[in-house]
Amino acid sequence: MRNSVFITGFMFVLAMMSARLFAQQQTPAPNLPVEPDSKKIMYREVVEQEGTPDHLYDKAIEWFGYYYTNPQSVYNIQDKVNSKIEGVGRMKIYYMDEKAGVRRDGGLILYQIKMDFKENKYRYTLTDFNLKGNSRFPIEKWMNKKDPAYNQNWDSYLYQVDTTMQRLISTLIEKMKPFAVKKDEW
């Protein structure tokens, strides 16, 4: 009887540990786009879009106002004459505190956003991802699972960066499209 209680208890603890390990491994390590020369994470695309450089620039300024709470804090360069916008974006990352069962602040990621405009096309570039701190901490370090300081939260952080950048890109591309003009036929 005592043996069966011990075995049942042991099986319960083993099942709980397995479930916890499985839950921690739920966040897949994303396959982030890495620029081969610089070895930096870089999201970059040239998008074919009808419009003059001035028109595309204005659409991008509208998107910045839509996407960022305070776009003025993002801009470093707003240059309509040379058809470019540059700035520094920010996003928070989080981790799960398993003991307390709550989501905790993991830090602030800063990244460079650049947009260039030409006739009927524009290019966006998202790069230079760094964890804000006293010194630069490029998040590319989180991609090294052999690092002695490796932390299982790093995969989650990279996943959060990737999903946020994918959402940013999809809203950008959608908002840069021309408005559909509806005819008032009555």
List the helices and strands and how they pair.
Blueprint: H1 2-24, E1 43-48, H2 53-67, E2 75-79, E3 84-97, E4 102-118, E5 121-131, E6 137-138, H3 153-176
Antiparallel strand pairs: 1-5, 2-3, 3-4, 4-5, 5-6
Helix pairs in contact: 2-3
Describe, in plain words, how this protein is organized in 3D:
The chain has 186 residues and is an alpha+beta fold. The chain has one domain (27-176): Alpha-D-Glucose-1,6-Bisphosphate, Chain A, domain 4, CATH 3.30.530. It is built from 3 helices and 6 strands, in the order αβαβββββα. Strands 1, 2, 3, 4, 5 and 6 form a 6-stranded antiparallel beta sheet that branches. A hairpin with a 4-residue loop joins β3 (84-97) and β4 (102-118). α2 (53-67) crosses α3 (153-176). It is elongated, with a radius of gyration of 23 Å. 16% of the residues are buried. The model is unreliable at 1-25 (pLDDT under 50).
